[in-house]
Amino acid sequence: MPKLRGEAFWRETLRSAHYVVAPMVDQSELAWRLLSRRHGAQLCYTPMLHAQVFLRDANYRRENLYGEACPEDRPLIVQFCANDPEVFVQAALLAQDYCDAIDLNLGCPQMIAKRGHYGAFLQEEWDLLQRMILLANEKLSVPITCKIRVFPEIDKTVKYAQMLEKAGCQLLTVHGRTKEQKGPLAGVASWEHIQAVRKAVSIPVFANGNIQCLSDVEECIRKTGVHGVMSAEGNLHNPALFEGRNPLVWEMAEEYLEIVQKYPCPLSYVRAHLFKLWHHTLQVYQQLREELAKVKTLEGIVDVNRELKLRCQEEIANQKEGEKPKEGLPFFHWICQPYIRPGPKERCKENGASGTEKGVRGKRALEEEEDGNSELLSKNKQKKKLRNPNKSFDPSLKPKYAKCDQCGNPKGNKCVFNMCRGCCKKRAFRETADCPGHGLLFKTKYEKSLSWQSSQRVIQNPEISRRGDVDVGEAAVLKEAGDGAV
User: Fold this and answer.
1) CA distances from 239 to 132, 245, 279, 284 (A)
2) How far from the centroid of its chain's Cα atoms is residue 168's Cα?
3) Which residues contact 419 (CB under 8 A, 6 or more apart)?
4) Can you give the pTM of this predicted structure?
5) Please, is 385 exposed, middle or buried when counting C-beta atoms within 10 Å of its C-beta (0-12, 13-18, 19+)?
6) Which site in 99, 104, 106, 483 is 20 to 30 Å from 165, CA atoms measured?
7) Catalytic residue set
8) What element of type H or E holds 102?
């Protein structure tokens, strides 16, 4: 059967999917995908897989794809991060029989993607991307798709999308944020960029960004003209988002935990999902939040979930008529609802006012700590204080380190080059030198190696030592060997 392309691929293989669950690292695993499909999702992506690891590690393949075969879990797109055409295609060839398409991640903005040189940090390397997609389009039996972030300029974003389409991309997901828009700086996604891309290409386009409820999905499709809408955080807080419902949190949590019993996944994934589902309730019941963080078994997580349910049901029973949700929430905390991530200013206000009153400060305010007052310390630092009551977190008491001449990191106190260990190692290797301060003995080991080689020659051919016609180079090596033996 010939490989379907563009609109035909979206209509027939993807069954004209409008509601899409995003690829989420450690979060869009099989159990969560099945829960989402039961509640309106029409297409799901796997978590982002690392092409290099997938290619070399059979266990990684089994844990992330091969061991998860499930007829209900289709259509399915497998997403890879990669920066090498051959590695990407070889990994995709191993995955293509287990999915309906292969997606290249060009949207991850995280620091790990910057260090690994993949995701959104490839968006300026158009020649490399063309080669990757051209080769994949030629070698794979399933279509190749891409997920991208936008450039600040609409024109450049459009040219970028057209380049990917020309190279062979059969479906494009556009996240309407730049790679700098992440975490507390995420801001609002630009549907204007997405609309411009949709008008400029002939392949199907999915939109990603600003999706918190079904009305957002409908508005996005109406304004941008896209074929489908992808949700990540909205789906994590309310798996029934695509049904247009806001169910009770424990209903979704219990259903998810039942699926996990049948299709197991790492406990860290389960814990993370319950933290998202119960997000607003865990702000009320901090002790149960601590228990959920510490529990070591799936049964323990089920117990915490049951206790949260009982607390909420008790609260509902004692609820007064006409009582409204607190903290400005649209619904009571035991109902699935979106989480609006605070911006930097709002976060500063939270850390400066409410955080101090409660005795726990937000992560971003930790650098403001001036002394060892436990009321102003993070929970992690409070635990350290318990283990060592004399410990101080006053930044003025921190030791001042001399900086490496090369990179600015703290240098080794006894380094002969006045460098940190990393820079010292490179220089010592390049110059075949020693640095006793860092325990680097390249020169010593090299001389020992020469000495050993020369001694081996003498052992193998004793006549060398009695012949007078030994060449100058061998004589020098033998002399070094003799000197070293003294």
Assistant:
1) 34, 9, 14, 22
2) 26
3) 404, 405, 406, 407, 411, 412, 427
4) 0.73
5) middle
6) 99
7) 108
8) strand 101-106
Report the alpha-carbon angle 184-185-187, nearest 5.
Answer: 105
Q: Which of 263, 369, 281, 372 lies closest to 325, judged by CA? A: 281
Specify whether the CB–CB gap between 365 and 356 falls below 8 A. Answer: no
Amino acid at the residue 83? N
The span from the first CA to the last CA of the chain, in angstroms, equals 78
Q: Is 194 exposed, middle or buried (0-12, 13-18, 19+ CB in 10 A)?
A: buried
Amino acid symbol at 446: Y
* Kind plus residue range of the DSSP H or E element containing 440: strand 440-441
How many CB atoms neighbour CB 277 within 10 A?
A: 23
Helix (H) or strand (E) holding 426: helix 421-431
Rounded Cα distance, 77 and 43, in Å? 8
Neighbours of 63 (CB within 10 A): 14
Element (H, E) at 324: none
Residue 264 C-alpha from the chain's centroid:
21
Reading the chain (486 residues) residue by residue, the pLDDT tens digits are 689 999 999 999 999 999 999 999 999 999 999 999 999 999 999 999 999 999 999 999 999 998 877 889 999 999 999 999 999 999 999 999 999 999 999 999 999 999 999 999 999 999 999 999 999 999 999 999 999 999 999 999 999 999 999 999 999 999 999 999 988 888 899 999 999 999 999 999 999 999 999 999 999 999 999 999 999 999 999 999 999 999 999 999 999 999 999 999 999 999 999 999 999 999 999 999 999 999 999 999 999 999 999 999 999 999 888 889 988 899 999 999 998 876 665 555 555 444 433 433 344 443 344 344 545 677 788 878 787 888 887 777 777 778 888 887 888 888 998 899 989 999 999 899 999 999 999 999 999 988 888 888 888 776 655 554 445 455 444 444 444 443
Distance, CA of 314 to CA of 465 (rounded, Å): 95
- The separation between CA 352 and the C-alpha centre of its own chain, rounded to angstroms, equals 29
Distance CA 77, CA 22 (A): 10
> Identity (one letter) of the amino acid at 163?
M
